Input
Amino acid sequence: GSTARDPLANGRPFLAWARTVLGFMGAGLGYIYAATQDQEHWQLRTYVTPASQHLIGNGLVFLGFASWRYFAVRAALRRGAISVSTFGIAFVIGAFNHGGAGGAPRDIETSSGRRHDLPHDAKEAAGRQ
Output
């Protein structure tokens, strides 16, 4: 490979991951901000806070992975041995699925005091009809 092209190409995925991290963290912080500003629906904070923590946590995990991958590829380029990262793909899929599942609310109580149960899968939703 080219001595100038390969290191520059290595930087592009890192920047893409950084953009993804900003999206996750921005969404998490935005949810927290919106929940603290809405005094009428204050009970939603109990659901918004865990979801926000998962978004911010995923962002931090992805930032750590992106940094590790950048330096690992840079070291491999210096040695002249580069390979596809199957571990990285599995890690990101696992981290995303693990973080997203915990932030989903089971039910929501509205200002009128009525509870709305949210089904987590199609089988559970079909059983309620």
Residues 57 and 99 are 8 Å apart (CA to CA). Strands lie at 107-109, 115-117.
